[in-house]
Amino acid sequence: IKTKEGKIYEHNIEKQRGCSENPMTPEEIENKFRENVEGIISHDRAQAIIDKVSILEKLGNISELTNLMIR
Fold it and tell me: Quick count: other Cβ atoms within 10 Å of Cβ 5?
């Protein structure tokens, strides 16, 4: 950032949060998902999606998840 007075402020992040070398925790991922869907789907529906994703490999049919994502 360069101010009107000419001062320069900078900060470098070599490994951004969420990259493979600095992964987010499951809680951070859930919170980010909730923030992104807030006002679009209900809290209960968001939780249902999170629950299905957490057992994705055990789902008999992916439609159990995709049906929750249809508006």
Answer: 5
pTM, full prediction: 0.72
Whether 24 and 17 have beta carbons less than 8 Å apart is answered as yes
**Angstrom distance (rounded) from CA 63 to CA 60:** 9
Tens digits of residue pLDDT in 20-39: 999 999 999 999 999 999 99
Q: What span, in angstroms and rounded, lies between the C-alpha atoms of 27 and 43?
A: 16
- Euclidean distance between CA atoms 60 and 47, whole angstroms: 19
